Amino acid sequence: MIKSVRQKKIIDIISSHTIETQEQMAAALGLAGFAVTQATVSRDIKDLGLIKIPGVKNTSIYALPAGGSTPSGEARLKRLIIESVRKIDFSENIVVVKTIPGHAQGVAGAMDQAQWSEVIGTVAGDDTILIVVKPKSAVEDVVRRFREISGG
Fold first, then answer.
1. HSE-CB of 87 using CA atoms within 13 angstroms
2. Quick check: 121 pLDDT over 90?
């Protein structure tokens, strides 16, 4: 089936079901007649700009961004920073960003997509992102941008 049809179905699924993992999404798509791999689901989630929001009992579920749109680039990054970032610090040429649990990879992916010229790479875990900045002198500019966006 066509990618756009599948992605529309993903939006329908997350609007009517609680989906915590990509495997659950693949299973739900399978029940709807879409044979997909986890890698395909992962790409679709990224393309759609889906985010994870707190669910019940310390879980995270997939959702559309606020307003139901799927922003890209800088707009998506700003929204994710506002919604997810809790703390920012730096040392030398590395910025460390703490997020709500389960949100670090989404923020890092949005950073990669926004392509800040000073950022040469990101590495994300569950709630922590390491951002490598070049040149080293630009690290405070990156931290300032984060703080201006997050209001902190």
1. 7
2. yes
Identify the DSSP state of 138: G
pTM: 0.58
119-124 β-sheet, strand order: 85-91, 94-99, 128-133, 119-124
CA nearest 82: which of 7, 145, 31? 145
* Mean pLDDT value across the chain: 88
Q: Residue 20 and residue 53: Cα distance in Å, rounded?
A: 10
Q: For residue 69, how far is the Cα from the chain centroid? A: 14
In the chain the domains, ranked by start, together with CATH numbers, are: 3-68 (1.10.10.10), 73-150 (3.30.1360.40)
DSSP conformation letters of 3-69:
HHHHHHHHHHHHHHS---SHHHHHHHHHHTT----HHHHHHHHHHHT-EEEE-STT-EEEEPPGGG-
Instruction: Please state the separation of Cα 144 from the chain's center in Å.
Output: 21
